[in-house]
Design a protein that fits this description.
By secondary structure, the protein is mainly alpha-helical. It is built from two helices and no strands. It has one domain.
């Protein structure tokens, strides 16, 4: 059963993913339209497109890396909680099995 914190975390991750996607689409569209309507030579336009694409790609990579790190931290936290729960369950069952072995 999920806790409220886990549900909120998943919801926040979905929202963040949507925001990143929307931002990327808007940035690409704006950059492309701005460059295509600029009165420059073809070589200059291609250079601007390349630079703009690299800048946007780097920004997306940075945001994705931050999101990945956040997800890894959350997964490690969940793994730790599960491991602790398994240990507690194992330790609580051990006295019962030892008692049965005596009789």
């Amino acid at each position: 059963m999920e806790t409220t914190k886990e549900t909120n975390s998943k919801t926040a991750a979905k929202i963040a993913g949507g925001v990143i996607g929307t931002f990327a689409a808007g940035a690409l569209t704006g950059a492309a339209l701005g460059i295509l309507f600029a009165p420059d030579k073809g070589s200059e336009t291609r250079k601007k497109l390349k630079e703009g694409t690299k800048k946007i790609t780097d920004g997306i990579k940075d945001k994705m890396k931050k999101e990945q790190n956040s997800m890894v931290e959350e997964a490690e936290e969940i793994e730790s909680k599960v491991s602790k729960g398994v240990d507690e369950l194992t330790n609580s069952a051990k006295p019962k099995t030892d008692f049965k072995k005596q009789y």
